[in-house]
Structure formats: C-alpha cells, structure tokens
Amino acid sequence: MALRKPAKATTGAIQKRKKRSQKSASVEYRNDAVDEHDQAIASLKIKVASLEERVDGLATSLEAYKLLRNRFISAFKIDKGLVNATEEDRKIITEGNGWAQGGDVVVDAQLYQDIGGRRDILAFGKLYGMSPGDVPMISYRPTIDALNLHAGVIASKHKIGSDEFYARFSEFMKLFEEYDYDEGYLEGNATDLTRAYWSFQNCIRTEVKRVDAGEASD
C-alpha cells in the first residue's frame, strides 16, 4: 500500500500562521517598549527627586549665607559707628553665628528686597558706593569685584584704607554713574572711567594697610 504524502499547507493557513507570528512579535515589542518606558520614567523620577534635594539644600545654604550677609552689614554699622545701629542689628549679629569676610554686593542687595527686607540703605551706600536698587544693573565682573573690595576694606577690623583709597573709589563710582553704568569700560579705547578704575586698583597696594583690630576700629 502506497504511503500518503502529507498535505501541503494551504495559502490561507500559511497567512494565518504569519499573522499570528507577527501579532505575537508585535505584542512582545510593545511589552518591551512599555518596560523601557517604565524604566525611563522611574529613572527620571529618581533624577527629579535628587534635583529637588539639591535645590532644597541650595535654598537652605542661601538662607544661611544671607544670614551671614545680614550680619556683615549690621556689624559694619556697630563696629565703625558710621550709621546708627538698632536693636534689630544687634539681634542679627547674635543670630549670624559667624563673620562674613569681605563684600558681596549682589547678595547683599537682595537683602533689601521685598516687604521684610532691610531698610538701612545708607549703610549699604557707605559699603558699596551705590543704592541696592541699582545693583541689578551690574553684571560686569570687574565692577562687582571693585565694589566688594571697597566694602571689604571699609568694614574690616584688620585693614584700613587711606583717604586717597576712598577718594579714588569715589571718583570711579562718580564716573561709573556718569557713563550710565557702562559694562565694557575695560574693552576698546580707554575712557576717563577706564582710567579711574585702574587708578583705584593700582592704589590698593600702597593705600590699604593691615592693622591690629583695635587700631582699625578706632
């Protein structure tokens, strides 16, 4: 008896198997895509949580730094006796828990913002030679450094500037205002403002001296 050959699969059956295979592959692909998507979301959530922690840490650090900056201005008023200190100044010094070395005109100007900010604008002017409200117009690093340097000297217990030092700073600030807070005075052709800046910078070596704390505060 002759053996019967297996029947060949019909075209329809082959197409059905292909469709099932394609459907299965498509489902697996979608599942893999979903898994990758879930993993990406989980990774992003971890990164967001980490960034939130860093932001919280920076905010805390900024508030602590502002407390030090508040102390810098209040201590300047009391130590130098140039501006009448208040009971609030003494409270700020007690809470400051440290001494902020040198000036920081950008952050100190922020202490005068909002309803609860500082109001002793005269003290700020003596430190930096300008109003805190004008500071946001300044972004030129040489200017910021010059203002901070002046504040660091006038508030210091260990340094004392000569009359010439303060006169040259005043001249620089006067011209800086006359030149509409020019932010590029060290670039291009030299102007009176350029020369005033270098005159102030060049006098630091000879017109600022280190002294004992008692002598500087006299």
What does this structure look like?
The chain has helices spanning 11-80, 87-96, 105-110, 121-128, 141-154, 163-178, 192-207, 213-216; strands at 159-161, 208-210. It is an all-alpha fold. The protein has a domain at 59-210. It has a two-stranded antiparallel sheet with strand order 1-2. The radius of gyration is 34 Å and the shape is elongated. It starts with 10 loop residues before the first helix and ends with a helix. Residues 53-60 have low confidence and may be disordered.
Secondary-structure map with pairings?
Layout: H1 11-80, H2 87-96, H3 105-110, H4 121-128, H5 141-154, E1 159-161, H6 163-178, H7 192-207, E2 208-210, H8 213-216
Antiparallel strand pairs: 1-2
Structure summary:
The protein has helices spanning 11-80, 87-96, 105-110, 121-128, 141-154, 163-178, 192-207, 213-216, and strands spanning 159-161, 208-210.
Please give the number of β-strands: 2
Helix/strand-derived class? Answer: mainly alpha
Low-confidence stretches: 53-60
Could you give the order of the helices and strands? HHHHHEHHEH
Overall mean pLDDT: 78
What are the main properties of this structure?
mainly alpha, single chain, 66% helix, elongated
